[in-house]
Amino acid sequence: MKETSWINLPSLSLPVKALFTGYIFVVGLGLMMAGAQIMLTHGMADGKLGVSIDDIVYSYYGNRNGSKLESKLLGSMKDKASPEENITMIKWARDGASEAEWKTTIKPIVDAKCAMCHANIPTLPNITKFEEIAKIAEVDHGADVTALTRVSHIHLFGISFIFFFVGLIFSLSVGFKQWHKAVIIFVPFAFLILDIASWWLTKMNPNFAWFVIIGGIGYSLAAAIMLFTSLYQMWIMPLRGQHSDTNAWLEHN
Protein backbone atom coordinates (compact mmCIF):
# COMPACT_ATOMS: atom_id res chain seq x y z
CA MET A 1 0.00 0.00 0.00
CA LYS A 2 1.33 3.43 -0.93
CA GLU A 3 1.69 6.19 1.60
CA THR A 4 -0.65 9.16 1.16
CA SER A 5 1.56 11.76 -0.49
CA TRP A 6 -0.75 14.72 0.18
CA ILE A 7 -0.80 14.21 3.96
CA ASN A 8 2.78 14.46 5.16
CA LEU A 9 4.83 16.69 7.42
CA PRO A 10 6.46 18.88 4.73
CA SER A 11 3.12 19.74 3.08
CA LEU A 12 1.08 20.48 6.22
CA SER A 13 -0.57 23.89 6.53
CA LEU A 14 1.09 26.51 8.70
CA PRO A 15 -1.52 26.31 11.55
CA VAL A 16 -1.13 22.51 11.80
CA LYS A 17 2.66 22.82 11.80
CA ALA A 18 2.36 25.40 14.59
CA LEU A 19 0.13 23.01 16.57
CA PHE A 20 2.52 20.08 16.17
CA THR A 21 5.58 22.22 16.88
CA GLY A 22 4.11 23.63 20.09
CA TYR A 23 3.30 20.12 21.28
CA ILE A 24 6.80 18.86 20.40
CA PHE A 25 8.51 21.72 22.27
CA VAL A 26 6.39 21.21 25.40
CA VAL A 27 6.88 17.42 25.35
CA GLY A 28 10.61 17.83 24.77
CA LEU A 29 10.86 20.23 27.71
CA GLY A 30 8.82 17.83 29.82
CA LEU A 31 11.19 14.96 29.01
CA MET A 32 14.17 17.09 30.02
CA MET A 33 12.49 18.05 33.29
CA ALA A 34 11.73 14.38 33.93
CA GLY A 35 15.41 13.60 33.42
CA ALA A 36 16.40 16.34 35.86
CA GLN A 37 13.89 15.04 38.41
CA ILE A 38 15.35 11.54 38.12
CA MET A 39 18.84 12.93 38.66
CA LEU A 40 17.78 14.77 41.82
CA THR A 41 15.81 11.87 43.33
CA HIS A 42 16.87 8.39 42.20
CA GLY A 43 20.21 9.81 41.07
CA MET A 44 21.06 10.80 44.64
CA ALA A 45 20.09 7.50 46.28
CA ASP A 46 23.76 6.56 46.73
CA GLY A 47 24.72 10.08 47.79
CA LYS A 48 26.35 10.95 44.46
CA LEU A 49 24.87 12.96 41.58
CA GLY A 50 24.22 10.88 38.46
CA VAL A 51 22.19 7.73 37.90
CA SER A 52 24.11 4.54 38.64
CA ILE A 53 23.22 0.89 39.17
CA ASP A 54 23.50 1.46 42.93
CA ASP A 55 20.93 4.26 42.66
CA ILE A 56 18.48 1.93 40.93
CA VAL A 57 19.09 -0.87 43.42
CA TYR A 58 18.66 1.42 46.44
CA SER A 59 15.48 2.95 44.97
CA TYR A 60 13.67 -0.31 44.22
CA TYR A 61 15.39 -3.18 46.06
CA GLY A 62 16.60 -1.03 48.94
CA ASN A 63 19.80 -0.88 50.91
CA ARG A 64 19.45 -3.88 53.16
CA ASN A 65 22.51 -2.75 55.18
CA GLY A 66 20.74 0.34 56.45
CA SER A 67 17.43 2.21 56.69
CA LYS A 68 15.58 4.34 54.18
CA LEU A 69 16.13 7.25 56.54
CA GLU A 70 19.88 6.71 56.35
CA SER A 71 19.79 6.45 52.54
CA LYS A 72 17.92 9.74 52.30
CA LEU A 73 20.17 11.54 54.76
CA LEU A 74 23.24 10.41 52.81
CA GLY A 75 21.58 11.07 49.45
CA SER A 76 18.87 13.45 48.24
CA MET A 77 18.18 14.95 51.71
CA LYS A 78 21.85 15.37 52.61
CA ASP A 79 21.83 19.17 52.44
CA LYS A 80 18.61 19.71 54.42
CA ALA A 81 20.35 19.46 57.80
CA SER A 82 23.90 19.90 59.05
CA PRO A 83 26.35 16.95 58.85
CA GLU A 84 26.25 16.64 62.62
CA GLU A 85 22.45 16.49 62.67
CA ASN A 86 22.44 13.88 59.88
CA ILE A 87 24.91 11.73 61.81
CA THR A 88 22.77 12.05 64.96
CA MET A 89 19.66 10.83 63.13
CA ILE A 90 21.52 8.01 61.38
CA LYS A 91 23.00 6.81 64.67
CA TRP A 92 19.53 6.95 66.26
CA ALA A 93 18.12 4.74 63.50
CA ARG A 94 21.00 2.26 63.72
CA ASP A 95 20.59 2.01 67.51
CA GLY A 96 16.97 0.96 67.22
CA ALA A 97 15.11 4.30 66.91
CA SER A 98 13.95 4.55 70.52
CA GLU A 99 10.97 6.76 71.25
CA ALA A 100 12.64 8.28 74.31
CA GLU A 101 15.59 9.59 72.26
CA TRP A 102 13.17 10.68 69.56
CA LYS A 103 11.45 13.06 71.95
CA THR A 104 14.60 14.55 73.43
CA THR A 105 17.03 14.64 70.48
CA ILE A 106 15.55 13.75 67.09
CA LYS A 107 12.19 15.56 67.08
CA PRO A 108 13.75 19.03 67.55
CA ILE A 109 15.92 18.42 64.47
CA VAL A 110 12.98 17.16 62.43
CA ASP A 111 10.77 20.08 63.47
CA ALA A 112 13.46 22.59 62.51
CA LYS A 113 14.76 21.05 59.28
CA CYS A 114 12.12 18.66 57.89
CA ALA A 115 8.65 19.76 59.05
CA MET A 116 8.33 22.52 56.44
CA CYS A 117 7.82 19.90 53.72
CA HIS A 118 7.02 16.65 55.50
CA ALA A 119 4.24 18.11 57.65
CA ASN A 120 2.56 19.99 54.79
CA ILE A 121 2.95 18.00 51.56
CA PRO A 122 0.45 15.08 51.51
CA THR A 123 2.61 12.90 49.24
CA LEU A 124 5.50 12.91 51.73
CA PRO A 125 5.54 10.87 54.95
CA ASN A 126 4.82 13.06 57.96
CA ILE A 127 8.03 12.31 59.84
CA THR A 128 7.15 14.80 62.56
CA LYS A 129 5.18 11.88 63.99
CA PHE A 130 7.16 9.13 65.68
CA GLU A 131 5.07 6.35 64.11
CA GLU A 132 5.94 7.57 60.61
CA ILE A 133 9.65 8.16 61.06
CA ALA A 134 10.00 4.84 62.90
CA LYS A 135 8.84 3.07 59.72
CA ILE A 136 11.54 4.60 57.54
CA ALA A 137 14.13 4.09 60.29
CA GLU A 138 13.75 0.33 59.79
CA VAL A 139 15.90 -1.68 57.37
CA ASP A 140 15.42 -0.29 53.86
CA HIS A 141 13.50 -2.73 51.64
CA GLY A 142 13.21 -0.28 48.76
CA ALA A 143 10.05 0.94 47.10
CA ASP A 144 6.79 0.19 48.86
CA VAL A 145 4.50 -2.08 46.83
CA THR A 146 1.57 0.32 47.18
CA ALA A 147 3.64 3.28 45.99
CA LEU A 148 5.16 1.21 43.18
CA THR A 149 1.68 0.22 41.98
CA ARG A 150 0.53 3.84 42.01
CA VAL A 151 3.58 5.15 40.14
CA SER A 152 3.47 2.27 37.64
CA HIS A 153 -0.09 2.90 36.51
CA ILE A 154 0.47 6.67 36.34
CA HIS A 155 3.53 6.17 34.12
CA LEU A 156 1.85 3.58 31.91
CA PHE A 157 -1.19 5.76 31.25
CA GLY A 158 0.56 9.14 31.13
CA ILE A 159 3.67 8.34 29.12
CA SER A 160 1.77 6.12 26.67
CA PHE A 161 -0.43 9.12 25.82
CA ILE A 162 2.70 11.17 25.12
CA PHE A 163 4.13 8.47 22.87
CA PHE A 164 0.79 8.09 21.09
CA PHE A 165 0.74 11.71 19.94
CA VAL A 166 4.48 11.79 19.21
CA GLY A 167 4.04 8.65 17.11
CA LEU A 168 0.97 10.11 15.39
CA ILE A 169 2.93 13.17 14.29
CA PHE A 170 5.90 11.06 13.19
CA SER A 171 3.58 8.76 11.20
CA LEU A 172 3.18 11.66 8.75
CA SER A 173 6.91 11.76 8.07
CA VAL A 174 8.34 10.88 4.67
CA GLY A 175 11.45 9.09 3.43
CA PHE A 176 10.96 5.94 5.54
CA LYS A 177 9.77 2.53 4.47
CA GLN A 178 6.50 1.74 6.22
CA TRP A 179 7.91 -1.09 8.33
CA HIS A 180 10.86 1.09 9.41
CA LYS A 181 8.44 3.78 10.51
CA ALA A 182 6.24 1.22 12.29
CA VAL A 183 9.20 -0.14 14.26
CA ILE A 184 10.33 3.34 15.35
CA ILE A 185 6.78 4.19 16.49
CA PHE A 186 6.38 0.92 18.42
CA VAL A 187 9.82 0.94 20.11
CA PRO A 188 9.01 3.54 22.84
CA PHE A 189 5.98 1.53 23.96
CA ALA A 190 8.07 -1.66 24.18
CA PHE A 191 10.81 0.06 26.19
CA LEU A 192 8.21 1.69 28.46
CA ILE A 193 6.84 -1.75 29.33
CA LEU A 194 10.40 -2.99 29.91
CA ASP A 195 11.12 0.01 32.15
CA ILE A 196 8.05 -0.44 34.35
CA ALA A 197 8.43 -4.24 34.50
CA SER A 198 12.07 -3.88 35.54
CA TRP A 199 11.03 -1.77 38.56
CA TRP A 200 9.13 -4.77 39.89
CA LEU A 201 11.84 -7.24 38.91
CA THR A 202 14.51 -5.11 40.63
CA LYS A 203 12.29 -4.96 43.72
CA MET A 204 12.63 -8.77 43.85
CA ASN A 205 16.19 -9.11 42.56
CA PRO A 206 18.79 -6.31 42.26
CA ASN A 207 20.37 -7.94 39.20
CA PHE A 208 17.51 -6.57 37.08
CA ALA A 209 18.56 -2.96 37.78
CA TRP A 210 20.31 -2.77 34.40
CA PHE A 211 16.96 -3.14 32.63
CA VAL A 212 15.65 0.04 34.27
CA ILE A 213 18.46 2.03 32.65
CA ILE A 214 18.10 0.22 29.32
CA GLY A 215 14.35 0.89 29.25
CA GLY A 216 14.73 4.58 30.05
CA ILE A 217 17.47 5.13 27.48
CA GLY A 218 15.57 3.13 24.86
CA TYR A 219 12.33 5.07 24.90
CA SER A 220 14.10 8.41 25.34
CA LEU A 221 16.25 7.80 22.26
CA ALA A 222 13.31 6.64 20.13
CA ALA A 223 11.23 9.65 21.21
CA ALA A 224 14.12 12.02 20.40
CA ILE A 225 14.44 10.54 16.88
CA MET A 226 10.73 11.07 16.21
CA LEU A 227 10.66 14.58 17.67
CA PHE A 228 13.71 15.89 15.80
CA THR A 229 12.71 14.17 12.54
CA SER A 230 9.26 15.73 12.72
CA LEU A 231 10.63 19.23 13.32
CA TYR A 232 13.15 18.83 10.49
CA GLN A 233 10.56 17.67 7.97
CA MET A 234 8.04 20.37 8.88
CA TRP A 235 10.35 23.38 8.78
CA ILE A 236 13.75 22.67 7.21
CA MET A 237 12.95 20.16 4.48
CA PRO A 238 10.57 22.48 2.57
CA LEU A 239 13.09 25.35 2.74
CA ARG A 240 15.79 23.15 1.22
CA GLY A 241 13.57 22.39 -1.76
CA GLN A 242 13.27 18.72 -0.87
CA HIS A 243 9.48 18.57 -0.97
CA SER A 244 9.40 17.77 -4.68
CA ASP A 245 12.05 15.11 -4.15
CA THR A 246 9.95 13.66 -1.35
CA ASN A 247 6.86 13.37 -3.54
CA ALA A 248 8.95 11.65 -6.20
CA TRP A 249 10.14 9.15 -3.58
CA LEU A 250 6.55 8.48 -2.52
CA GLU A 251 5.41 7.84 -6.07
CA HIS A 252 7.96 5.02 -6.42
CA ASN A 253 7.33 3.34 -3.03
TrEMBL record:
Q: Give the originating organism.
A: Thiosulfativibrio zosterae
Highest taxon of the lineage: Bacteria
Instruction: Kindly provide the name given to this protein in its UniProt entry.
Output: Elongation factor-1 alpha
Which key words tag this protein in UniProt?
A: Membrane, Transmembrane, Transmembrane helix
TM ranges: 20-40, 154-176, 183-202, 208-232
